[in-house]
Design a protein that fits this description.
The chain is α+β, with helices and mostly antiparallel strands. It contains five helices and seven strands, in the order E-H-H-H-E-E-E-H-E-H-E-E.
Amino acid sequence: MMGIKPALRPAAVIRLLAPSDGEGYRRLRIEAARDPAFGATPEIEIAYPVALLRQALIPREHGFMLGAFVDDQLVAMVGFGVGADNTRGTLYGLFVTGASRRLGIGAALVEHLEQQIPASIQTIELTVAGTNTAAIHLYEACGYRRAANQQDPDALMLVRSLQDPAQVACTPVTGRRSD
């Protein structure tokens, strides 16, 4: 598989989102909610108070939200939550704006997220709409595998063991929508 050429990548800055990013985070959530696969509606996101979003962006021991910025504009996000047993975690809410897709930003966010998680995490889990082939390709290129015992035909559970040395970092595939 060929990776995306570095010349195609914009100068994205990836960092933890903070309360001061509340307005940009809200705009991104509203855009994401226009996609039925995201799991919310624009009406719900528009009605959600910015003050609560700002509070949700305070990094905590049990989770955090990352953002990717191009030209100081928030163009992508992904979240992580630590499970109750502190050995499993959940990747959630990965979204990249339409204009910033196919540039490797989604893969870069997943890689950055994996570098930020607590050392106690052994497995990362996520759920993706079974029809969201672009996201499935991205996650599989990042080493996530379909979980056994799938029970919901509309949602696909993917897992990645961080203890398995055979699982490598993200390798976006050229020509496929990878984020």
